[in-house]
Design a protein that fits this description.
5 strands; two-stranded antiparallel sheet; 17 helices; 425 residues; 3-stranded antiparallel β-sheet; mainly alpha
């Protein structure tokens, strides 16, 4: 899911080549300058140019998921980012200025905002316009790319499916001009069982139409195939015992979207079984644990009913993710809260940390919450503020940000094509 300004992202940018290496990414942690003030309603303290709407949406959605009512001004700020068309861009520094052809609206920001605003009971005019816009930019294959008109990818298609579901729109009832549904697009991105990485999802087909397994896309694809949003609930199998889960990849002529979800979950279960985490591998660099993608995998496993398989990566995150989340900021805290929720774990006691309180410290004080989410004076603790000021915003897995190549190519400089980087379990 998400934007992570780190050495890894910069390395991904360099690999793509100078044509896709925008100057905007020259500094891995842009941050605010003394002459540049960011909105006080915004979560996080670093430059929101490439992830403002995304991280705000995740922060608000995560707070709602734990019964915390966010500050009204933070919700109003997100609503104010919407264009008249219903779409959202990554960040609009001047919401009073009308959107035009130069406003780079995208499906991921719009879908994330829609999920958050639906959870917070925003007006039908706001959410309905977002749904209408997303439908209007659907590709013929039934899916979505990051920007309107770009080829469909698993991550974008999945986050839009979650948004449609949040907006009470059944993805099965959203056919494209070629009468293809979003689930048809995901089925076309599922790696066949008899190929390397069988059962996983690819980010996109390669130039020859081949599908390469991608753990990042697989975590997203499982949620999309299940019709779930970013804050997916754990599958409920009944009070007696969990239903048996697939032990081998399913294929054949009767291959269904349910099979694709089960296959993807099985792939993720195998990927985290050894070390308890996913790795992110970049050319010329040593393999590194990928905290964001690991959290996404936990959410997907929980949503697919494989909570036993999620136990090891969840325990790894509880032990190891603190420093990463403190540096990465609100979206990272939100992602960990989603992982806790999807496995029935208390996010207020996550490896000894209160994720809800830590997330709250990165933005305005909540309108209301239980006593464990904020100090009695209604202000954020100084220690939490210090952590928030040390952010390197974005945090979440690379499946949202990946736009370096695509966005850089059109002059925005984001991180999309990093999604195609080699990933290993």
């Amino acid at each position: 899911m998400f934007v992570r300004r780190s050495a890894a992202v910069l390395a991904a940018t360099a690999v793509i080549g100078t044509a896709f290496a925008p100057a905007a990414l020259a500094d891995e942690s842009p941050g605010a300058t003394p002459s540049q003030a960011f909105p006080s309603a915004l979560y996080g303290s670093t430059d929101p140019t490439y992830d403002g709407v995304w991280r705000q949406s995740l922060a608000l959605l995560a707070q709602d998921s734990v019964d915390v009512k966010p500050a009204k001004k933070s919700v109003d700020w997100l609503v104010g980012q919407q264009c008249e068309s219903g779409a959202f861009a990554a960040y609009r520094p001047d919401p009073s200025a009308k959107c035009d052809a130069r406003t780079k609206v995208d499906t991921n920001s719009t879908a994330a905002a829609l999920q958050a605003l639906e959870a917070l009971d925003a007006s039908d005019a706001v959410t309905g316009a977002a749904v209408k816009w997303l439908k209007s930019v659907q590709n013929k294959d039934g899916g979505w790319g990051y920007f309107p008109g770009t080829p469909s990818d698993t991550n974008s298609t999945s986050v839009v499916i979650g948004a449609l579901d949040a907006g009470d729109t059944d993805p099965k009832d959203v056919p494209s001009k070629d009468d293809r549904t979003p689930y048809d697009a995901l089925l076309g991105l599922s790696v066949p069982c008899d190929e390397t990485g069988g059962g996983a999802f690819a980010f996109q087909p390669d130039k020859k139409g081949g599908l390469a397994a991608n753990a990042d896309a697989t975590a997203a694809g499982v949620l999309g195939a299940l019709g779930e949003g970013l804050d997916a609930d754990p599958e409920e199998d009944g009070p007696d015992k969990a239903s048996p889960k697939a032990s081998q990849c399913a294929g054949g002529d009767s291959f269904t979207i349910e099979d694709a979800a089960a296959n993807g979950a099985l792939y993720l279960a195998d990927a985290v079984a050894k070390n308890g985490y996913l790795k992110s591998s970049l050319p010329g660099a040593e393999d590194q644990p990928d905290y964001g993608n690991t959290a996404d995998a936990v959410v997907a496993l929980g949503a697919a009913g494989r909570t036993a398989d999620a136990e090891k990566p969840l325990a790894w995150l509880e032990k190891n993710s603190g420093t990463w989340a403190a540096k990465s900021g609100p979206a990272a805290y939100a992602q960990l809260i989603f992982a806790a929720n999807a496995t029935g774990t208390d996010p207020r006691a996550f490896g000894g940390a209160d994720l809800v309180k830590q997330l709250g410290a990165t933005g305005p004080a909540a309108t209301s919450s239980d006593a464990s989410t904020a100090p009695a004076d209604g202000k954020n603790d100084k220690d939490d503020q210090d952590n928030a000021s040390d952010e390197d915003d974005g945090g979440v897995s690379l499946w949202w940000i990946i736009g370096v190549g695509l966005v850089g190519g059109i002059g925005i400089g984001f991180l999309l094509s990093g999604r195609n980087k080699k990933q290993q379990p």
